[in-house]
Amino acid sequence: MSNLLDLLxxxxxxxxxxxxxxxxxxxxxQTSQTINFAQGEFVMLPAFLMLAAMHVGAPFWLAIVIxxxxxxLLLGLGFKMLLVDPMLRHGVLPLAIATMAxxxxxxxxxxxxxxxxxxxxxxxxxxxxxxxxxxxVALQSVGVxxxxxxxxxxxxxxxxxxxxxxxxxxxxxxxxxARIIGIPVERMILLTFLINAFLVALASLLITPIxxxxxxxxxxxxxxxxxxAIVGGFNQVRGAIAGGLLIGVVDNxxxxxxxxxxxxxxxxxxxILIILLRPQGLLGRAEERTV
Amino acid sequence: xxxxxxYWRVALGVVVIAALIIAPMYxxxxxxFILSQWAVMTIAAMGLNLTLGYAGQVxxxxxxxxxxxxxxAAIMTANGMxxxxxxxxxxxxxxxxxxxxxxxxxxxxxxYLAFVTLAFSTLAFLVFRNEGWLTNGIxxxxxxxxxxxxxYPTNRPLPFYYVCLGSLALVSFATxxxxxxxxxxxxxxxxxxxxxxxxxxxxxxxxxxxxxxxxSALGGVAGTLYAPLTxxxxxxxxxxxxxxxxxxxxxxxGSGFFFGPFLGAMIAVLLPEWLRFTQGYYLMxxxxxxxxxLIYSPSGILGILDRYLTERRTKAAxxxxxxxxxxxxxxx
Lengths: 291, 332
Fold this sequence. Notes:
The structure holds two protein chains of two kinds. Chain A is globular, with a radius of gyration of 19 Å. Chain A has helices spanning about 1-30, 40-55, 60-90, 90-115, 140-160, 165-175, 175-180, 185-210, 220-230, 235-255, 265-275, and strands spanning about 130, 135-140. Chain A contains eleven helices and two strands; from the N terminus they run ααααββααααααα. By secondary structure, chain B is an all-alpha fold. Chain B starts with a helix and ends with a helix.
């Protein structure tokens, strides 16, 4: 029973990170029909940007700032202007394939310019244990969970409580009408790309101390985020959050109770079941099928 | 004009086929391996082209079917059976699994389908890796024998290259025939407008499943050649990236074009060899090239060619019209 509680907390912590990545993924899909197959690599890259800044001699906090700014520039602005904008008129599939190519490119670039080996990455949460309800829990899990929840709550507030958030939602739901009533649609779309870039950088900062910085670490993360997005609901931010937490917990419980060998299979089976039984996701709205 | 085009095409075809038969005699072992790999990957990409390019169903599982084919061949031949038996098992198995995998395609489309097939791909990889009693797990299966065809052993690289090339030719003819048949036309109808296809009396259900099953079976065929080609298989080559690579081959060559997979596989298999002088940068260059190509022409290389030919034809036609019109107009 106590073991179960540990697993749950660890699962929620990784799940919260998956949720952040999945939210960015669904935001891109909603505002610009971009299925970003490079989302996992987007999480992998900022950690290396921060490591590079530290190699040059920047202290950790400055490296984080530099890494964040660079990822806003590269993964937000650059991604939108250089890849999505020219590809968007060609439709969903060519753009998705282009992001697959981008994923290969990013992986190879990191392997070539940094290292093919895994590098350790400092944690922003101090090591040690904390006592909650008389139990020892790793401070890392709690810190990650708290930061991820703060990010998700902040984002939800931004989307639901502020004028900019409402404008973004309007853009996602109906760009034509949004444009007519005077919402700067282009700027809102750019904003979603910047938010996604911020979210992946944050996820990178949180998860890399746990799994080390490696060029190939994006593959697993990207898949977990896709699954989270689909399981929760592709067109809902809260769906992606629920999906992320669920996948994190299921993944951790599967490792303990099913088998470590087939741990990766359990979320996949969950995905297939959800798609067959409830394709709009657990919390999603049904999208009308376009003919 | 079109007559010239047709002669030109036949001549080009003859030259390419002759080159594929004669040139390898002067290649070294490694060159032959690369060319054989091209033939094998082309077969797998052709299967995917059938599913994606003609029937319009996205699949990220073709690499898993190549794996299933390769393991069928390896396990059968390791137990003393001929490769042809492995081929039979691979085709039946991949056809059946592909048919079952097609069922989600009846319910969901596009990105959802992509993720179902992606999940299948990961599951297949886990089975290859974990079911050690069958696949020998991460240690893989080694010493896979090459077949003896009509009493003629193909152990050396050149004869085995001809086996791959011959299989490619057979598969090409079969696919050509299939695309021209009512089935192939039904696949295209399914891609262009499923609702209209249904209202015209095409059993879209059956053809969707069929497109998946036949495409997957071709993946299995490619796998049965892959195992004796490398003579050693382990789970790693059949992970998700093979499926993504095959998808890129189809798109880069030109999905929905018969010769798309030939060209796409050539670029994916040979380009890294040509870019070898750039050392570690070649995959990066490949990725950038693919992105630039897709930005310029989302229908791939053959899409550019097609656009160019159509443009020339319309230009020629409008020039003819202009001549005819000026002939009709009374002189001022």
